[in-house]
Amino acid sequence: MPDHIRSAGTDWQPVAQQGAFRQIMNCFAYPGRLGQLATEAKHGLPLLLATLVDRSNRLADPHRLLDDDEHRRLGANSGTPEMAQFVVQPGVLPPDFQPILGSLENPEQGATLIVVAERLGTGASLHLSGPGIDGTATVAVQGVDPVWWQKREQWNAGFPLGVDMIVVAERQVLALPRTTRIDLKGAN
Amino acid sequence: MNPNYELPLDEADYSFGFLDEFAKREVRRTILKAIAIPGYQTPYASREMPMGRGFGTGGLQLTLSLIGQDDTLKVIDQGSDDSVNAVNLRHFVELTCPGVDTTERTSEATLIQSRHRIPEVELSESQVLILQVPYPDPLVVIEPSEAKRKVMHGEGDYSRLLTKLYEDIVQFDEITISHRYPTRINGHYVIDPSPIPRYDIPRLHRSKALVLLGAGREKKIYAVPPYTVAAPLAFDDVPFRTEDFSDEHGARRTCGRCGADDSFLDELIADDGSKVWQCSDSDYCNQRLAEPSHEVSA
Q: Domains (ranges, CATH) in chain A?
């Protein structure tokens, strides 16, 4: 991976986080649609994390995509990918961990995986269906190892347990909640 | 109310949206999980609001966590923009969210907070409907233990709830639930869709707009995502049916004000003691009256 991803000062302001949340929520409500994170930084990841994560969460960033200063500002407790609520991973590397899937009584405790891709809108096509999608949707993702989609299918095999994924590339964001089915046969 | 007490507005210095940023972030995280697990009552730390629980604090916390300065908010109570709950909630948002527009027109709103109705006009993808929920769990009538209810929900075990509906049929020849009709979302979780009438249940099914439900007292948030199956519980031989607005001759009753024959009607008692019917959705009624081509046939 290149240098650490850096935040902009505006990423820490409530108004930026409100706007970012609405984009992210829209992505969760309509999986397959791309959201835009309005940030002055080169990358949307810091704003995404600042919007969702704080000192009441456990965040894993095993590949150090953000430097120590950024982590201090987020204030989240650090953890391993096996025990964190939020896991940040580079998409080019296949997943090498088993995230929390939640329990039958508390499925919301399943982890949120934040996968940093290279580009959204170009690359390998994913064919999606499920809640929030009127029929089927297609989205192109570049820079995510295909093993991610196979692992995701295994992790989400037993609804309501599972993981929710947010793919972020540059300032664009894509959400794949656990209910979204990815047709792997049609993928290229 | 103490007439001598004035809220020191200039010193109050509320943060935008009243809630602090940690509270908003927690509500926001909960919303995302609620959308990801359609119909699941996601627990959250419901904050104290400057109004009693049971007055829409769950819906209000959702609204305040979502709203930004480019939003237009509509607040309704039983379909009306002018009833006391709606007026007070709207006033509170205007006070704590400077720059936010409010409206009574459904089509202009980006956020709609509602108590017990879904607007007549079909919502669009650019709108979010927020419903205030008093009792989030449909299983509470048959199982007092929340720990056991959570297991039943997780397993999708609604046999006892169906038995309850069946007992209704045995006693009364039909399911007697008038509002809060248990509805299964995406084939798994059954929700209490808040006290909306049966008439509104089909509008949850494959809605274009995201529907968020917030129960402040019970500390739960759940969601019906867009384009998601919402099926009211029923039996093959006793299908679900909505309210019947037929009069004694079998004709559909109409609104006494605008003449609409396609809206949910409230029954009112007129000054002379007779019954009249009127649209429950006041904006829908007003818009019909404002149409230039409109002629009241009554």
A: 9-183 (3.40.50.11310)
H-helix or E-strand containing A59?
strand A58-60
Backbone angles phi, psi at B202, to 5 degrees: -60, -20
In the sheet with B230-232, reading across from the earlier edge strand, the strands are: B189-191, B183-185, B230-232
DSSP state of B246: B
Say whether A3 sits in a helix, a strand or coil.
Answer: coil
CB contact under 8 A, A25 and B210: yes
Strand-pairing partners, residue A120, are A141
Contact list in B for residue A17 (CB cut-off 8 A) is 21, 25
Give the pair of three-digit tokens for residue A25: 């929520």
What's the CATH number for B244-298? 2.30.170
Cβ pair A105:B40 closer than 8 A: no
Q: Which chain B residue is nearest to residue A85, measuring alpha carbons? A: B29
Domain boundaries, chain B: 11-141+150-232, 244-298
Token reading at B113: 């907070």
Q: What is the 3-state composition of chain B as percent helix, strand, coil, each rounded to the nearest 5?
A: 30, 20, 50
Catalytic status, residue B97: no
Question: Whole-model pTM?
Answer: 0.94
Q: Along the 298 residues of chain B, how does pLDDT read in single tens digits?
A: 566 666 555 556 678 999 999 999 999 999 999 999 999 999 999 999 998 888 999 999 999 999 999 999 999 999 999 999 999 999 999 999 999 999 999 999 999 999 999 999 999 999 999 999 999 999 999 999 999 999 999 999 999 999 999 999 999 988 889 899 999 999 999 999 999 999 999 999 999 999 999 999 999 999 999 999 999 999 999 899 999 999 999 999 999 999 999 999 999 999 999 999 999 999 999 999 998 877 554 4
Q: ipTM of this predicted complex?
A: 0.96
Could B225 and A132 be called an inter-chain contact, meaning their C-beta atoms sit closer than 8 Å?
Answer: yes
In the CATH scheme, what architecture does the domain B11-141+150-232 have? 3-Layer(aba) Sandwich (3.40)
Instruction: Please name the residue of chain B whose CA is at the shortest distance from the CA of residue A21.
Output: B28
- What DSSP string describes B141-156? GT---HHHHHHHHHHT
> Among B112, B20, B34, B110, which residue's Cα sits nearest to residue B65?
B20
| Helices A14-29 & A45-52 angle (0-180, nearest 10) | 90
